[in-house]
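To illustrate this point, we now present one chain and its tokenised fold:
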Amino acid sequence: MNAAIDRLWPHPAAQIDDDTILATYEFPPGAWLRMNFVSSIDGAATRDGRSGGLGGDADRRVFELLRRQADVILVGAGTVRAEEYGAMRLQDDAVAWRLVRGMPEHPVFALVSGSLDLDPDSAVFTDAPRRPIIYTVGTAPLDRREALAAVADVVDTGVEALDPNAVRADLVSRGLLRVHSEGGPGLFGSFTAAGAVDEMCLTLASSLEAGNARRISHSAQAAPTDMDVAAVLKGERELLLRYVRSEA
């Protein structure tokens, strides 16, 4: 049974269904990049090293629904390893939803890795329903590049540092306009600093974590970015917040 979710703003409604949630988070026309994260009240991005430990049933419900709208799921390699990602395969109901709307059964999985520290024999690649993309830099090790090129498109988007806007441009050139990113903090920070983030979906978990967990966004430079509240939802023990960039 789905976790109960109420919409508090705009247009308050109790126990909204999946279609209403999807409409609340609908991508606008054109190219759009969304970040999706969970955080504790005191700002921790993880519990025991994983973000999955923070989110509850409502977070997991929205997490799965947001994926079904996307053309591509963008994730940093560190998050792929820490959260133990497998192949980017959606559940049967999500596949059916996409097919009715003329979309491919599954979104493309795009990974970001400057070092190419990824295992070409992992299920991320061997069980992929669509060929993944790996965004890297020109200085990445040649041997890893060659091994991964057998199972994914390996694309340079910078010489020593990855250019987030070059990543976006390449995705657009492939017709992958609706980008849903699941982090991690380094990727989020770099994309924010580059002005490449249009939307932020944040689950605020009802917990205090203390400890030394990182924030959801990290970069070498500050990049203040004004955001507007677009929606507020509530699960049993968490708030689900949608923000869009003020000038977007």
